[in-house]
Amino acid sequence: MAQSDSDDGMDEFMEKFKTQKYKNALNESNWEEEFEKVPMFMKTAPEEIDPLKNPDLACIQSIIHDDDRPPEEQAKSLKDEGNEYFKEKNYKKAIVAYTEGLKKNCSDSDLNAILYTNRAAAHFYLGNMRSALNDATAARKLKSDHIKAIIRGAQCCMELHNYAEALQWCDEGLRILPTEKKLQELRAKADKQKRAAERDARKAKAKVKKERTDRDALLTAVKERGIKLMPGQRQHRSSDSEEDDGAEGSAADMAELNLDGFSTQEATGAKVYLDEQGVLHWPVLFLYPEYRQTDFISAFCENSSFIDHLTVMFGEELPPWDTDKKYCPQNLQLFIEDHEKGHIYEVDVTKSLLSVLQHTRCSVKQGTPSFIILVKDSPFCKQFLSDEKVHLLK
């Protein structure tokens, strides 16, 4: 069997001992003295250690007695260690090293300022903007003209979208060093972003104000017409508060709650709105229980009659689900449901939407008036109405 390369090498190495003695071997005559030079076998350590004569022992001693070095020396070593980690983009270990350096509490304020600034940089690249800003601030307290700390503080403020504070950092830095290009660029960017943010804030405030004005006008219009609103999906108030306010207060509160979230459950999200002429337009839902179908009108003018819409919806082209072709405008009956008593009332199709919504037994639920459509005298219509107490709406 052939021997491996490592075996051949070992044989060659061992062959040398037949012709020459191992240079670093212990001498038989003074092996005890030689053992005393090995740190592991020393019985007593020398009072003074020469790093040139005993490098291994000096290295071990520096590790064991590191705390005996001045705090400034220890902090500087940890700063250098952190810098090496930073160059390797190992920012977490860099933060640990810089933190240990700060814990030495050395009296060198410039060194501490550098440790804070370097740790701020590591935090910055990890995305810890608030921690980075805190470190930049701490560095400036120790060294007010530390440009690197000022630049880092301005950068953090930019990332945190605090443009006014970023401008302050830049202005303070430029007073110290007016030619600093990085601060000039940061200041220009911060000023631009601050103006844009203020403009957006003004627009948002104006939008909120307009929405509030429109909502109040809509609420007033609904109340003036005497239209009854039913609670939507919002939570009711506690019974105690209802008892305190009285029935009148509860009714007004109910209307206000529903208008705040006054939208249909349909995917369109249509809402009742008041046009420039002061006319209400409602999202309206038509239900066809015979075929389990629905129609949705996103903006039904309150002054329009039902027959106007039915004529368009069931004109020349009937819906595909009406296989018997019986849903013609002249054959249709409309009904509303009394949500409180469970009764249904027939609606005169020639009446306007407003006149129907103003009836005492009519109510709007979840912002969308809904109406049931049946074919007059059809078997399904007779069956559907046989279980209900039907009233003609007058």
TrEMBL record:
GO molecular function, one term: Hsp90 protein binding
Keyword Repeat: yes
Coiled coil residues, start to end: none
Cns1/TTC4 wheel domain sequence ranges: 275-384
Disordered: annotated span: 190-214, 229-250
InterPro entries in the cross-refs: Csn1/TTC4_wheel, TPR-like_helical_dom_sf, TPR_rpt
Any one GO biological process: protein folding
CC terms in the record's Gene Ontology section: cytosol; nucleus
Pfam families reported for this sequence: Wheel (PF18972)
Compositionally biased tracts (Basic and acidic residues): 190-203
Domain of life according to the entry: Eukaryota
Keyword annotations: Repeat, TPR repeat
Recorded family membership: Belongs to the TTC4 family.
PANTHER family named in the record: TETRATRICOPEPTIDE REPEAT PROTEIN 4 (PTHR46035:SF1)
Official protein name in the record: Tetratricopeptide repeat domain 4
Species of origin: Astyanax mexicanus (Blind cave fish)
